[in-house]
Design goal:
The complex is a heterodimer.
Chain A lengths: L4 H7 L1 E11 L38 H13 L3 E2 L6 E4 L9 E4 L6 E10 L2 E14 L3 E5 L11 E5 L6 E7 L9 H19 L11 E10 L9 E6 L2 H20 L8 E4 L6 E3 L12 E2 L10 H9 L5 H11 L4 H10 L2 H9 L4 H9 L1 H9 L10 H12 L5 H12 L5 H8 L7 H14 L1 H8 L6 H11 L6 H11 L5
Helix pairs in contact in A: 3-4, 8-9, 8-11, 9-10, 11-12, 12-13, 14-16, 14-17, 16-17
Chain B lengths: L2 H6 L2 H9 L5 H19 L2 E4 L1 H12 L11 E5 L26 H8 L3 E6 L33 H8 L5 E5 L6 H7 L2 E4 L20 E5 L2 H11 L17 H7 L6 E5 L9 H16 L3 E5 L7 H16 L20 H12 L2 H14 L5 H24 L2 E5 L15 H5 L6 H6 L3 E9 L2 E8 L5 H14 L12
Parallel strand pairs in B: 2-3, 2-4, 7-8, 7-9
Antiparallel strand pairs in B: 1-3, 4-6, 5-6, 5-10, 9-11, 10-11
Classes of the chains: A alpha+beta, B alpha/beta.
The complex binds zinc ion.
């Protein structure tokens, strides 16, 4: 038996909640001077502190405190005037000290909100807390078929990520969203991501794990207390956030309809199937034995400093978006179409990177929207940045690429072949505008279609298009169409 | 000059002689290495002797590369402080063979000051104990009577100083681990203000209480060492960013006229040996005779210090010691392809930790656990606040407080091993200063039944200088007793 999403939400009321972890883009780690960066050789960005060697002590990264306070302020939170870090104790090999330095009952920021637009309406998502903690290392299980711990012969641990500052943003339960629950969840994460990007505190790359979501979902019958919630861990794309909520709603509805009971548990989301499965069951609830971190002095943000940070916050993305739409002269219809396609911010970012608004719009609503659709992903998760799109537009404008070549370049970037200029070089996609090189192709086209050539000679200029097309085909799109047209007309003795 | 003469000198005398080129630092180092070779099989103060490193450092001093008030003076380092490349065991099997890749801040400062590091001293495992009998490497013996304990946890450091194996040593004091050994070995031991000496590289027992400090045979020597190791360290968040109190000047003052001294009413009576109380009473008379104004002061919550300490320290320890899991360093048991990761961690901790460490990890885990936190850890923190208030109020009336440092003289090896509570009571008088954070000193105030008794002086935070002022004046009036070392012949 299955219960489709919409049908489930006619019978049950959903409550959702989101916990988002964001790796801050500070130069150094949370409690030591090691570089906080991706992609380095394993265990080369480590020191006694982030390896948890005996005797080593943490010192708070002031920049991470500043970033967290700015996030809290942008989310309309109250900022603590005094708070402490806490130790969260549990054993795991990728956690060097076997406790995580985190915050417990004294978070840096509390009681905020984020407004998100869904279907033309504003939904207010309340923020319970924003706190700062350290990331763990990464474990790689080797020898098993699945890369999971079962079946593995041994495990490798990379501590480069251990100690990277991590901000956790926790919402209050979001109620009353009805059938928009999944859309609200996705819109919240998208809006949060844009807000964080605007603050320049993180690169917020969900696919790289610098932003990760845990999605809580429960269903209850109207008028009754909330149902038991499940926590779907590490949902790593916007699309998956939406799918995770849908899938849990559908699954829980089946259980509840059949008179079953929802088990409070953590679940894993599978990108492949779009469904969740139970996490490793724990025989008993973990007791983290939180207590104030005695190795760190309390953090006491100076109210004057906080006020200065608040005054210097950038405009929130929602406001900036409206301003840009107006500035660029985009129509209400156009901007609504872009919002619906989830590309408005991408278009605006492409414009900021130097592309004309119309070109940016055409790329994101056209070729790139199709590419996302056929890849089963959303446009903002495509492997191309607005800056790369702007570069392609620039190459076309300068005559280095034709429209057809530009699509090939974009496809190359999407396929992971590198930046636009790398793809141009690797695929040899430079426009051929050398008249000598084109000469023979032009001659062949005229010889192959004498009737059309005569029409052109006779003054029917638009007919030349067929000959241009033949040359373009023969040169596999690499010719500069304007140069081809000029050559053809010269050969046929016609002037415009 | 004979080798014996070189080892009997104070640190100040040795430093002066080296600076004046009357003797070389290498000769001094060699004399102490010889002394260790001669007596340490019986005292067992050292877990590791680094003769090569010591002589190399001494040669650098002789070459003029390093200088300072203690340049060329040998020192014994408690095995709880990291020294790059030198085994650091914390008295535990779980760290056997581990060589730290870095220096503790204290170690680095000693090296930079030209101090000659002789080796690492024995201690109760993870500094948990009051007799050094909980060392995984066997006990240290008290030079006053080899059948007796040298105190703990820093018994190795105190015994090394008392047996003339080193003029100076570094100890660490979480609940009395510098002062109680000083008391029972007739030496001077100081727990500086918490935050006065960097904890970076000190293998943590209880982070909010641990403090490294000097062990010496004279108050001035302790002050000279204090001045070298103290001072703000940005690598330790709890390090105090203030100038070091003028401890050396204070030690040389020898004047306490008009100083107000309070005798803590609660640190006497039940649990204190009669001989200790007698020596303490004489010490108070002497302080009065030296011109101090002595009054009795009440610190009503000191009676709760011991139970509060035995909740806070084990709680922090249960978390601090979690990192000893075999994954990145130290002992690993059961890594045979059969046992799972969790089993390897568990077997390693099972075999690597001794019974006292396990007892405290269990106590601390319980005290922090959900449902018990408020009743135990939370309540202990409230008591800690009350004890701090007791000190604050007392220091409105007097400049320093005094008490016996230890309730008894050195007991016999094995005497209290089967009775943890009796062992814990050794720290009755020393624990309040750790909970408060203020500095405290133990210095010799005579003998009881032929064994040393210690006088404790306690001062307000960052007034470490007051300890040295009182200690210096007291020592000038009542020189420390000298052990017969009759077992040597
Ligand atoms: Zn590091």
């Amino acid at each position: 038996m299955t219960v489709p999403y919409l049908e489930a939400l006619q019978e049950f009321e959903p409550v959702i909640g989101l916990e988002t972890h964001v790796e801050l883009g500070t130069n150094s780690k949370m409690f030591c001077g090691c570089a906080a960066e991706f992609g380095a050789e394993p265990n080369t960005r480590t020191c006694p502190v982030c390896l948890g060697l005996p005797g080593a002590l943490p010192v708070v990264n002031e920049k991470a405190i500043e970033s967290t306070v700015r996030i809290g302020l942008a989310l309309h939170c109250s900022i603590a005037t005094w708070c402490r870090f806490a130790r969260k104790n549990y054993f795991y090999p990728d956690m060097p000290k076997n406790f995580q330095t985190s915050q417990y009952d004294e978070p840096l920021c509390v009681d905020g909100y984020l407004d998100v637009e869904v279907g033309g309406e504003t939904v207010r998502v309340e923020i319970e807390r924003v706190h700062l903690e350290e990331d763990t290392g990464k474990t790689l299980h080797v020898g098993g078929a699945t890369g999971r711990i079962s079946g593995a012969t041994h495990s490798l641990v990379d501590y480069n990520r251990a100690g990277i500052p991590l901000v956790e943003i926790v919402t209050r339960p979001v109620t009353g969203t009805g059938e928009r629950a999944a859309a609200v969840a996705k819109a919240y994460v998208a809006e949060l991501r844009d807000l964080l990007r605007g603050l320049d505190v993180s690169d917020v790359r969900m696919e790289q794990g610098s932003m990760r979501c845990d999605v809580n979902t429960s269903l209850g019958r109207p008028g009754e207390p909330w149902g038991t919630r499940t926590e779907t861990k590490n949902v790593n794309s916007l699309r998956s956030v939406e799918r995770a909520v849908r899938s849990e709603v559908e699954r829980q509805a089946v259980v509840l309809r059949s008179g079953g009971r929802i088990v409070q548990e953590t679940r894993h989301f599978s990108e492949a199937t779009g469904t969740t499965s139970p996490g490793r069951s724990k025989e008993e609830a973990t007791d983290y034995r939180y207590f104030p971190e005695p190795d760190l002095v309390p953090v006491a943000p100076d109210p004057a400093w906080v006020a200065a940070l608040k005054a210097a916050l950038p405009e929130p993305p929602s406001v900036r978006r409206k301003q840009l739409v107006t500035q660029l002269g985009l129509s209400e219809n156009d901007s609504q179409a872009m919002v619906n396609a989830g590309v408005l911010d991408l278009v605006l970012a492409t414009v900021e990177a130097g592309a004309p608004a119309a070109e940016a719009r055409n790329w994101w609503l056209g070729h790139l929207a199709q590419a996302a659709n056929s890849a089963g992903t959303s446009p903002d998760e495509l492997a191309i940045t607005p800056a790369a799109v702007a570069r392609v537009v620039e190459l076309v404008a300068s005559g280095s690429l034709t429209a057809g070549l530009a699509r090939q370049v974009v496809d190359g970037v999407l396929a992971g072949e590198g930046a636009p200029d790398d793809v141009v070089a690797a695929r040899g996609l430079a426009v051929v505008s050398d008249e000598g090189a084109l000469g023979s192709a032009v001659d062949e086209a005229i010889a192959a279609q004498p009737g059309i050539a005569d029409k052109v000679r006779g003054g029917k200029l638009p007919a030349v298009g067929a000959l241009v097309g033949a040359v373009m085909k023969a040169t596999r799109g690499q010719a500069d169409a304007a140069v081809v047209r000029k050559l053809l007309l010269e050969r046929l003795g016609v002037s415009e | 000059m004979s080798s014996t003469d070189l080892t009997r000198r104070t640190a100040a005398e040795t430093a002066a002689a080296i600076a004046a080129r009357e003797v070389s630092a290498v000769e001094v180092a060699q004399a102490h290495l010889d002394r260790i070779a001669a007596v340490d099989d019986r005292v067992h103060a050292f877990l590791h002797v680094d003769a090569e490193g010591a002589l190399a450092q001494a040669a650098r001093v002789d070459a003029g590369e390093l200088s300072g008030p203690l340049a060329g003076v040998p020192l014994a380092l408690k095995d709880v402080l990291c020294q790059e490349g030198i085994p650091t065991t914390v008295g535990s099997k779980i760290l056997e063979g581990w060589r730290p890749p870095y220096d503790a801040t204290v170690t680095a400062r000693l090296k930079a000051a030209g101090v000659v590091l002789l080796g690492k001293t024995n201690m109760d495992e993870f500094a948990m104990g009051s007799s050094t009998e909980h060392s995984a490497y066997g006990p240290t013996h008290n030079p006053w009577d080899l059948d007796r304990i040298p105190g703990g946890s820093g018994g190795g450091s105190a015994a090394a100083v008392a047996a003339y194996e080193a003029p100076l040593a570094i100890g660490t004091d979480t609940g009395g681990s510098i002062r109680q050994p000083a008391s029972v070995t007739g030496t001077v031991g100081v727990k500086p203000t918490y935050g006065g000496v960097s904890r970076y590289g000190l293998v943590a027992f209880s982070s909010s209480l641990d403090q490294a400090g000097p062990c010496a045979r004279t108050v001035l020597d302790a002050a000279l060492l204090h001045a070298v190791i103290a001072g703000h360290d940005p690598a330790d968040s709890t390090s105090i960013p203030l100038p070091v109190p003028p401890v050396v000047e204070a030690a040389q003052k020898r004047d306490i006229t008009g100083l107000r001294i309070g005798v803590v009413k609660e640190l006497a009576g039940e649990g204190y040996e009669a001989g200790v109380e007698a020596r303490f009473a004489e010490a108070v008379e002497l302080l009065t005779a030296l011109g101090a104004t002595v009054t009795e002061v009440s610190c009503p919550h000191f009676g709760y210090a011991l139970p509060a300490y035995y909740l806070i320290a084990p709680s922090e320890a249960s978390s601090n010691l979690a990192r000893f899991d075999s994954v990145r360093f130290g002992l690993r048991v059961g890594d045979d392809g059969v046992h799972s990761l969790e089993e390897v961690m568990s077997l390693t901790r099972e075999q690597g930790f001794g019974p006292e460490v396990k007892r405290r990890i269990m106590l601390g885990t319980y005290a922090l656990s959900s449902g018990y936190y408020d009743a135990y850890y939370g309540q202990a923190q409230k008591v800690r606040t009350l004890i701090t208030q007791d000190f604050t109020r007392a220091f409105e009336q007097v400049d320093v407080l005094v008490s016996p440092a230890s309730p008894g003289v050195a007991f016999r090896l094995g005497e209290k091993l089967g009775d943890p509570l009796a062992m814990y009571r050794q720290d009755l008088a020393t624990i309040p200063s750790n909970l408060y954070g203020g500095p405290a000193m133990s210095l010799p105030c005579g003998l009881s039944d032929g064994l040393p008794v210690g006088l404790q002086i306690m001062a307000p935070t960052m007034r470490d200088d007051l300890l040295y002022q009182v200690g210096g004046a007291f020592e000038a009036a009542l020189p420390a007793p000298v052990p017969s070392l009759s077992w040597e012949s």
